[in-house]
Specification:
The chain has 258 residues and is an alpha+beta fold. The chain is built from ten helices and eight strands. Among the domains are: 67 residues, Arc Repressor Mutant, subunit A, CATH 1.10.10; 66 residues, no CATH class. The longest helix has 31 residues.
Amino acid sequence: MTKEENPKKIVPPYNTDTTVLRKIIDDLKNSGSDGVNLKTLWANIDETKNLNKSYTLNMAKFLNLVDTDNVKVWLTPLGRSIGYLSEEKRNTLLAQNLPEIYMTMFKWLKYSPTEDMLANDFKVRFINTFGDLSSPVLLDRAIASFLHYCESIGLLKYVGRGRGAKAILTEFGKKVLDLPQEDVKNGTPKQPKQELSKSEPSESLQGEYPIRITTKDRVFDWDIKTDADLQVIDSVVNSIKEIWKSKKDKKAEGKRQT
């Protein structure tokens, strides 16, 4: 997708603080449906002087955890539901409800053959998929906010600094999207889908142009809507190629040693 094809630039959250994000959600879970005054919220969580508090509130909105009219702020159904879940179920629900941009970025890592990615590689993929941001600094901070958030819900480990900074997929990150979907209203797992015949499309294959890739190791469902979706699919196919080549090379090496 070129800049000309995407005149409305996508600017994900930046300058965010995951500690402040958690404090916002924890404080609001005790509020009513009308929410609380923004000034009261900042005072309640002792973040009045935090220069990044508004950026973090923007992330909470981006994640569909809160809504605001710039005077008051309140929890969405998703934001309210996570307050009643254990840590593991909470992280599962948040991972399964990542915004589309974040989900695409996470799948770059999930389907990477090496199960890790340099932060700079995320920047390159972001530019090629969604277009460049107004400055390199803004892009750096947006990618950092994404990686810190995914780390906070257990999807990855974010290690290193500078050119060596990278994300490493966790065991939870490997399996979370294959777990039963959590119900946003009450946090209970939805019932497993019944086995379908080959000619009958599953619920997950409904959409504009759904695709399924099935191997011995995984089942990958995706709905193609934009060029960015095609890049996700390319990542999956490339991952399958790398795994196949690796197994083939190991098999050949074993034959040479016997």
